[in-house]
Amino acid sequence: MTMTHPGLPMAWGISVCLFMALTTIWFFVRSNAAAVSSTRHFDLMTLPVIGSVLHYITTHNWILIVLKLVFAGLFLLIIWAGLFGTPIAERNIATVFTWNLWWSGLIVAVFFIGSAWCAVCPWNSIARWLVHPRLSNYKFSNSLGLKVPKTLRTLWPALWLFVGLTWLELGFGITTDPYATALLALVMIIITTTSMALFERQAFCQYFCPVGRTIGFYSQLAPVELRPQSKDVCINCTSLDCYYGTDKISPCPTHQVMGRMTQNTYCLSCGNCSQSCPYDNVTWRLRPPSAEAVQDARPHWDEAWFMVVLLALTSFHGITMMPFWENWMSTIARTIGDQGRLLVSFTIGLALSLLLVVLVYLAAVWMTKYLCHKTTTFKSLFSQFAFIALPLAFAYHLAHNLNHLTRESVDIGALLTNPLGTNTLPLTMAEKHDRMMDMVLAPNVLFGIQAGLLAFGFLISLLVIKRRSVNLISLDETNQVYLLPMLLFASVMTGAHLWLLMQPMVMRL
Amino acid sequence: MIMHKTNKLLFLIALFTIELFTLKYAHAHHVLGRPSYSLNEDSNTPPAIQMETQIGDYLVNVMVFPAFPQPNEPGRISFYASHLDTAIPFDGNITFMVSNNSWMNWLGFESLKEKIGVQKIDDNVYRQGFLFKTEGDYIITAEFHAGGQPYIIDFPLRIGARAPIGALGITVSILFLILASVSLIQRKRAMTGKIQNTHEQNNQQGKQL
């Protein structure tokens, strides 16, 4: 028997629809010129106590090293438990920590601390200790330091790896197999180490890592950023220690120059820049969430594709956890004569889901181009408006993951005392029921947050449409018809996500 | 002497009472009134692997006992197939076959199938016993004909625990190979650099002279 979580009640659904209707009216009433504004920031380092603490953390390496050691230790424990522990997924720390806590919690963490996870990521830490066997700097290097071939210097590798990871997660069912989870972890170490041994800096993090790139894009919507305190200092800087590094501090792992940074996408929050800057000019700042997606981030063709596919994959995650998904799979399997684990049927389902969202987006871009009668190219419209996908994907991803995090409680104490799940039995239906009822948040609070997130995502997508269209099309106040296709796209995606949230969702473990 | 015996008796009673109250777990060797050593694949124990799927006009449910089948230990497959519309169980012969589940199967190469039995319906269930001598990943195939259509259902079966040292060994070997190769290339590079430098220095000295 399959356990399901209840969906969002109708009242919340209607509230979100009302909000969407009101914001759409506001969207047309609001002046185009008002969309253009400079982003306001607040320097966290100027705060009395917090500022000093933050300054100490960002300029002293030992705290980061301790955190890296803790997470690497936990990661190795997960591999050990996966290989030697019980095959019962809900009793093994490998599956529970990886898929129930880390995979679900990671997206929630991005909302508050941006790409901080990348700074302590165990894949990178272990690879680095193997290739550059010192904890803090690059004194000894066992890397060839080659430049990444030009064809790979895009986000396409990360995008395909992300599709592959989704296939493994939802199709192959790696989330319920501790051994396969451990194998995946080992494969990730091999890939990261190989990349670091061959290429300069952290090419894997910059171009190939599906998790890192997802975090990178989502952190465009985070309320924190690592930026220069004064741009003038950076303009007059001749040493560029943030980019080249120093004798003791490594250079920026993703080739970022602090003075030119306008987006979080490739920042790994490693703190190298704040440690190497001779003028102590790097700081953590607060900003309005979404400022970057709305106007600061620069559009690129490959990045645009990544964002659109990210939106499609996020929706697909939700679809596969619906009770009707199994029937769909059976129908496809019956049609094509698929058997066993129905992997071919799943692959077809995944491809169709991705294709559907991509086609809808392409149609919206094509209609915008048709309506605006301007010389703007299809490619540039596609790249600029792809930022709409980001808040839509992030809002639904968060709302969906909150279900996992709050409704599928994990007995962390029992897992830490018996990480391998030795001599344990599968969860009984009563235990599953108990877990589902033992919620971290009250049901209504959870529903409120989920509805709020969808509304937030829709609002940000409207701001993106408004602001990005000013760049591309015109500041004509009277004729805004050309914005309709993109508005329709945002409404359809939010509507689909709302409907998915209102359905009962299958419990993961 | 009598006093001594009484004390001993009292001490034993007290010890027994304390033991009785402090014991949290009892090591039961009976399950539902049956001695545990008499449990086998036909006992009323929870299933391990359960699979439910729809194929053609039938809803198929497969259970495998015991939870984690081991080599040289008997196990059993319970196979249920009922019509989607009428819910009437399929009544006929079902052939069970086994083949190796290797990574070659992923590439489309089919392993040789070996028949393990043909079963008739028994109380709405088709029961197929098995005993594997070697551990490994297998594919069980259940095949039957209904309404003039062939039905073939494949499902994976793992016998014995997977070899964790194999995965770790392969990973460590690959990592060692990569790092050693890179180190060798770097040494070669360094040596070439040194030779080039010396050559250039000699050339410059020659010019000065």
Helix content of chain A: 55-70%
**Count of discrete alpha- or pi-helical segments spanning 4 or more residues of chain B:** 3
Radius of gyration of chain A, CA atoms, in whole angstroms: 23 Å
Oligomer: heterodimer
**What shape does the CA trace of chain A take?**
globular
Largest interface (CB within 8 Å) is between: A-B, 27 and 25 residues
Beta content of chain B? 25-35%
The average pLDDT of chain A is 89
Strand count, sense and barrel status of the largest sheet of chain B are:
4 strands, antiparallel
**CATH homologous superfamily classification of the largest domain in chain B:** Macroglobulin (MG2) domain
Q: How far is the N terminus from the C terminus of chain A? A: 12 Å
What does the model show?
The complex is a heterodimer of chains A (509) and B (209). Chain A contains 23 helices and five strands. Chain A has 509 residues and is mainly alpha-helical. Chain A folds into two domains: 4-36 and 57-214 and 294-506, no CATH class; 224-286, 2-Layer Sandwich (Alpha-Beta Plaits), CATH 3.30.70. Chain A is globular. Chain A starts with a strand and ends with a strand. The model of chain A has no long low-confidence stretch (mean pLDDT 89). Chain B has 209 residues and is α+β, with helices and mostly antiparallel strands. Chain B has three domains: 2-31, no CATH class; 40-159, Macroglobulin (MG2) domain (Immunoglobulin-like, Sandwich); 166-204. Chain B contains three helices and ten strands, in the order αββββββαββββα. Chain B has helices at 2-22, 103-106, 164-208; strands at residues 30-31, 34-35, 49-55, 58-65, 75-83, 93-100, 114-120, 126-130, 136-146, 149-159. In chain B, strands 3-4-5-8 form a four-stranded antiparallel beta sheet, with no helix packed on it. Chain B has a four-stranded antiparallel beta sheet with strand order 7-6-9-10, with no helix packed on it. In chain B, strand 1 (30-31) and strand 2 (34-35) form a beta hairpin. Chain B is flat. The N and C termini of chain B lie far apart (117 Å). Chains A and B meet through helix 8 and helix 16 of A and strand 3, strand 10 and helix 3 of B.
